[in-house]
Design a protein that fits this description.
With 189 residues, the protein is of the alpha/beta class. It is built from eight helices and five strands. It binds adenosine-5'-diphosphate, uridine-5'-diphosphate and magnesium ion (MG).
Length: 189
């Protein structure tokens, strides 16, 4: 089976997860949120749980071997051949390590582009009880995004793989742009 993956990317609060839910419905991908997998790992009481929890609280990037193991396990447990990887790779080291262990590159990268002030507003009203949705951690996450995550976008942009979307519009309008990128031939019948 030939496996393919698409990356859903953007700053904290840009709407990656929200759009992924729509993409799953329309295009039949399996959604893998790296952040969700890490939060589930904390809840499961694994030996890495405390370390992961502390890093998320500080807005830091969890060591790639931890995140990659969780992603690989989720991909293996799922029978699908197309995955939507959300919020990973967080830095160039994550990206290189994932491409090395899987031997795969993404088909393309959706980049939900959104101004910080809009992302901040969304995060402060997300109401999911997340320990990192407070103004102090949000500022740290924005800094990490600019310094560590944007270089990943530049890497994929140089390969012609980035599909940039204006994410500062209503959810439905953003999804219209997403649909245009996947194209009608990929819709679930
Ligand atoms: N286009 C949008 N306009 C307004 N609010 C949005 C939009 N997209 C998502 N949201 C809301 O903003 C918050 C963050 O969205 P989420 O999808 O969790 O972002 P991310 O996964 O990129 O951090 C959520 O409360 C979500 O309901
Ligand atoms: O590959 C990843 C994805 C997430 N995280 C951590 O999990 C947090 C939340 O990530 P998520 O994508 O869920 O949230 P977002 O910042 O996009 O709102 C990040 O700030 C990081 O601390 C990480 O270390 N590696
Ligand atoms: Mg998310």
């Amino acid at each position: 089976m030939v496996i393919k993956y698409v990356i859903s990317y953007g700053g904290p609060g840009s709407g990656k997860g929200t759009q992924c839910a729509n993409i799953v419905q329309h295009f039949g991908y399996t959604h893998l949120s790296a952040g969700d997998l890490l939060r589930a790992e904390i809840k499961s009481g694994s030996e890495n749980g405390t370390m992961i929890q502390n890093m998320i609280k500080e807005g830091k990037i969890v060591p790639s071997e931890v995140t990659i193991k969780l992603l690989q396990r989720a991909m293996q447990e799922d029978g699908n051949d197309k995955f939507l990887i959300d919020g990973f790779p967080r830095n160039e080291e994550n990206r290189a390590a994932f491409e090395k262990v899987t031997g795969m590159e993404p088909a393309f990268v959706l980049f939900f582009d959104c101004p910080e002030e809009e992302m901040e507003k969304r995060l402060l009203s997300r109401n999911q009880g997340r320990e990192d949705d407070n103004i102090e951690t949000i500022r740290k996450r924005f800094k990490v995004f600019l310094e560590s995550s944007l270089p990943v976008i530049n890497h994929y942009d140089a390969k012609g793989k980035v599909r940039k979307i204006d994410a500062a519009r209503p959810i439905e309008e953003v999804f219209e742009s997403v649909k245009a990128i996947f194209g009608p031939k990929n819709e679930k019948s």
